């Protein structure tokens, strides 16, 4: 139904708005703009960033694609049919969507066929609260957090985990918007479930990576060859993505951060953030996540150190290794 | 060299000894006896168990295969070319091999072509110490702990993780002995490395299973469908054996303990034991295994409860679920 | 300076407002009203609760002390010189103080000699943010969370941990307000530090109580008499409030919750809440609190169980004891 | 009874033996020798250490006190009425007491009035096993581990935690032996309970110290003055020996290791060892010690680092502080 409303409302190409042009948002917006050819409006808290985005788009403008900067999220919303947001944390999302003076919701008043897609990774409670408020105002908001990092954002190969009120809306958003920024687009159920899926996967991942690091470190210190040990685990019940695809021990796999001094990849601070979201969601829902909480503290500690704060999250192996007696 | 000695010494079929006829040892010994057709000698701390084993073998005896009970490990060793041991813990292994009066070593004095294979899961330090003592006496001991449980023992499909002083010896033992009890036989390096590989894999497994349980429980309590959540994780970076092959949440996978009230499988107490071995080995080698230690405490607690002590180790999911507010 | 403004502005008795008449706030407000004899205005989210408070005060009204209910925090603020708030969590505090339509701040516009005292236990970030906003509007807010439970609230013997912009203001608030509800009133430094002191003390307490429970349980299971063990620890370096004043093992001390089936005292859910605040504050300040995080998960789990959710926080001993093999 | 046997057997002064002249044993033995004036026999695994001990005692020899070195524990036992042992770990105790060729037990054959006192800190299981074996042979062994460190050993102010088969024996050993090396001598119940009391106290202590470090670090990073924070905690429910007597934050207390760069005191490695014993005893007795296990891993990690391995155990505060972002 909404999908029908949506299509009928956009005779030719819908106008697309993008809020949040950070390290992830900038390349995502660039891909979306180029691949859709839609009229495009952007907003960023730093006006210089928004100007730079438009400056970069002058080739497209030369081909008559409209690209402009809005003064506020509200102004942006007033011009757009579809809006994507990519923001650092819950309070930013709340403010960008709901601020009475400058928020997106204020800008779409009366037009209930606007689609809003939030790709930020934020706490489940805020995500559901904002979506509900948007819904009460007659519009539709989906949560669609991503994985794949800046490389995926640039290459347009992100994974989107999408919470959507209906399959039809999911399909509309997937086909007209997300497909231009990502490769793997998964429907996770109702609104908020995109966030749930992401923090669940990333909590599992964070624990597994610490576990893989502890295990590889223990085995090596007890005299095992690391490749041999990884081979045994990878054909046994200890197998996981962190051992068979992204092994944290240098030299075991060729093209992973561990084999290039932990550069590139997914930073320790981002893992600390995602584990914090998981621990908070567990507290809210009265769920126990003991290993999640310990992994969170470990990434808190590792990401606080100068040497590790800009390294890939598999560098927890190196951290263990540096902080122990040589044998 | 040893392999040559071994073969030249056994004109036709070597006499095989088996010490330790418990839940694992009994079916392992039965397979080995039947498939090799070798003269067979057994010993168990409970004479009735050894008698029962021989009683069960009367068909083979009728076909002229010799099967007998020894009074002590020493007496057994005195009659055998190859000896397999399957014992509960380090102190038993130490006593069975090294006791001055009744031990295996006392029984092979002067015959340095006897092969000893210990399939017990014990601490690395004891395993290396016993192997070294055996080696100093001129014989050869390999460690070859198993995974696969009682079902694998009965079906002859165990995995053996083997520490061996040489590839030749490994191949000899594999082809003449282990192949009759297992399917997947892995050379893990020098003596003691079988134990290292096993505790590393099982520490990784224990942590992963708790993590999978925390993750599935959190997601379900936050409103996700468990099959959908498992599907997303299993195609993402959180994927592991505990989510894609042995998922602890009932109903996600059809033929796993979780879907039959956690019966069968690998017991919580066995996981507690293996994690204890890992934590001890970490202490000895001054390695840090924080998640391993927490997982150990969790299995300690779960396996101490009447309801869970005989359940599969994936029942940590049920334990989490039972001990929380209903939503 | 502010103190001077405050006194000069209240010729005789200042009018006092109280927002939040829950299990703690109700008896605190009753003490404050009775002991000051000041004109009194109350607000609660449940109008029936506010009415009941006024009904209870009819004796005082008969003696001409004014006691009334306000329609909103804003209306309350418009009538008061001093306002005390006692609310469940950060979002409530934010809304009661800052809501543009109904908040306290809207009610004191232009009167910059109003004193606001928040006795809620909330997250440090919200506390500082609200105090700063109040300060920017020209008024003064102090944070003054309490310990001592409902018994302390009723007896007027609470401990207040107070963050105040100056010693003078602290003294004013202490002498005119807090002294009527508490016995031990501590200046913890600048605004927000009341919350910091409280969560630091309670994190230390939560960890100590779990530690005392693990220790007493271990010793008893290894054969020690619990009183003897407690006596040894209490004269040694393991001594703490949780062992020498509030021992969690039944029978060791006479007048503690442990010796009356863990009734009364400080509930497991409140400890879970305070540990959650500590873990969040640690995340915000990039501090590592590994034991704090594990204790949080343990209280999360314990307080989720029907049997323990209304028990004193020392019942973690019973929880350990119930969940283990009998010896 | 034993006490009577003991006294009647030693007409004048009993001959005392001391095995294990390490950093603790050497000054303990020196005090015992000087204060009793008894004939003295020593043994150490390093003959040079034993010789040095005798060399140091030449003044006493000049006054006709007999001081000599025995070739083995067995030879020592053959000459002594009372024997004190101070050894690094369980295996050493087992070997020194029970070795068939060279052990103490072999040296006291037939003389069932010899008293043996083991002051080593070892695992409970070994302690009980050795005591039982000694008892079966007709002699009596007490466990009497100490706290107080090398300073206490030198000053003769150690605390002894004593497991003894009877109060009479405890009193005999206390009055004739332990009082010369220590100040606080506590009867903890039956044999083995000295070890239990010690590991329980030290587990409580290790957890408390990590907790105090996390708490002080968190409070300081949130803006509290450390002395003020310590003062508040020390008069509240978070109070413990690690905050009020041995605070790990530099500058809070004057005469503690924290205020002299963590020199002196009780080393991180010793705490790692004691926590390891506690975790093992918990495993043996199927007790859960989650915080104990995490504290163990933390001390494992800290004591493995060059910078901390020779520092006092309160340096975990500095470790936390070094490994985090500066604020």
Task: Note down, in words, how this protein is organized.
Chains A, B, C, D: The active site is at residue 198. Chains A, B, C, D: It catalyses: 3-hydroxy-2-methylpropanoate + NAD(+) = 2-methyl-3-oxopropanoate + NADH + H(+). Chains A, B, C, D: Keywords: Branched-chain amino acid catabolism, NAD, Oxidoreductase. The structure is a homotetramer of 327-residue chains. Chain A has 327 residues and is α/β, with parallel strands linked by helices. Chain A folds into two domains: 2-190, Rossmann fold, CATH 3.40.50.720; 196-322, N-(1-d-carboxylethyl)-l-norvaline Dehydrogenase, domain 2. Chain A is 50% helix and 11% strand. Chain A has 16 helices and nine strands. In chain A, the strands form two sheets. Chain A has a six-stranded parallel β-sheet with strand order 3-2-1-4-5-6, sandwiched between helices. At the B-C interface, helix 15 of B face helix 15 of C.
| Biggest chain pair interface | A-B, 70 and 70 residues
Query: Largest beta sheet of chain A, briefly?
Result: 6 strands, parallel
What do the pLDDT scores of chain A average to? 93
The arrangement of helices and strands of chain A along the chain is HEHEHHEHEHHEHEEHEHEHHHHHH
- How are the strands of the biggest sheet of chain A laid out side by side? 3-2-1-4-5-6
CATH A-level architecture of the largest domain in chain A: 3-Layer(aba) Sandwich
What would the CATH topology of the largest domain in chain A be?
Rossmann fold
Specify the CATH homologous superfamily of the largest domain in chain A. Answer: NAD(P)-binding Rossmann-like Domain
Poorly predicted tracts of residues of chain A: 1-10
Whole-number count of domains of chain A? 2
Give the class of chain A from helix and strand content and strand pairing. alpha/beta
Estimate what percentage of residues of chain A fall within beta strands.
5-15%
